[in-house]
Amino acid sequence: MKSEIIKMLQDLNFTEYEAKAYLALLDKSPLSGYAISLNSGVPRSKIYEVLSVLVERGEVMVSHEDPSLYTPLPPQELIRLKKSKMESSFEAAEAALSHYSYVSLNRENIWNITGYEAILSRTKEAIHRAAGRILLEIWTEEAQLLEPELREAAERGVEILIVVYGELEFDFAQVYPHDSSEEITQEYGGRWIVASTDDREVVAGIVSLGTDSRAAWTMHPGLVMPITEVIIHDLYIYEMLQAHRETLEHTFGPNLIELRKKYNFGPSGYSMAVRLGLGK
C-alpha cells in the first residue's frame, strides 16, 4: 500500500526520497531530521538535502529550534498547493507558447488520426481554436460529446452551424437536421464527422468503427476549401427543401431518394466502410 502511495506522490513531482520523508512525517511529527531518516529509510547523508527541498516547496514546515523539527503540510493542503502550482504552470506555458500555435503546423501536410477518442480530441482542439465560425456535419452521438466545447465557443462569440443526422437541440447553435438520417447511415455503413473551423482547418473522417475509426486533420487549402464546401452545400439543400420540398420531392422522390439512388455506387447502394476495408 505504501509503495502505491509513493508512486502517486512521484506522479505529483516528488522524488522517491521526498515521498518517503513526507510519508514518515505523516505517520508521526514533528520529527528531527535524524528521526525522519530512521523512520523513512532515506540515508542520513541525503535527508537534510531532501528536507530542504520539501521546505522550499512549502510541502514541509521546519521549526527554528535546535535541533530543527519538521512537520508535513496536511494532505488536503498539499493537494490544493499542487493543483494551484500546476494550474499556474499550465497558464504560463499556454501564454508563452501561444504564438507558436500554428508555426509548427505545415499547411501542406495531411495528418492521419486513428481511433474514436483521438478523432474527437482533435476536433475539440480545433473547436477551441475557432475564432469566427464552426461548420459541422455530424451525428447526434458525437455532437452531444462535443457540446461543452461548442457551447464555450458560442459563449466567446463564435458562430456555430451544424448539419445533424438524427435529432439535436442546441440553444447556442444553428442546427439543420439532415433528411433520411437512418437511410443514409445504412447506405454508408456508419457515421462520420466533418468539422471546419474558420475556413482554415478541417477534421474529417469515419467515427463509427471504434479504435479503427479514421480521420484526416489538415490546414491544406486544397482540402479545406472543398471539405468546407461539402457542409455549405448541405446547408443549401436544407434551405431549398424548406422552401420547395413539394416540388423537389415530386421530381426526385421523398427526401430526394431518386437522387441518392442515381449516384450511389452499384445497383443496391454501398457501404463506404466496407469498400475501404474498414468494416465488415
TrEMBL record:
Domain Transcription regulator TrmB C-terminal: 110-202
InterPro entries on file: TrmB-like (IPR051797), Tscrpt_reg_TrmB_C (IPR021586), Tscrpt_reg_TrmB_N (IPR002831), WH-like_DNA-bd_sf (IPR036388), WH_DNA-bd_sf (IPR036390)
Domain Transcription regulator TrmB N-terminal: 9-75
Alphabetical list of Gene3D superfamilies matching this protein: Winged helix-like DNA-binding domain superfamily/Winged helix DNA-binding domain
Superkingdom of this protein's organism: Bacteria
SUPFAM superfamilies: Phospholipase D/nuclease (SSF56024), Winged helix' DNA-binding domain (SSF46785)
Protein name (Swiss-Prot/TrEMBL): TrmB family transcriptional regulator
Species of provenance: Paenibacillus medicaginis
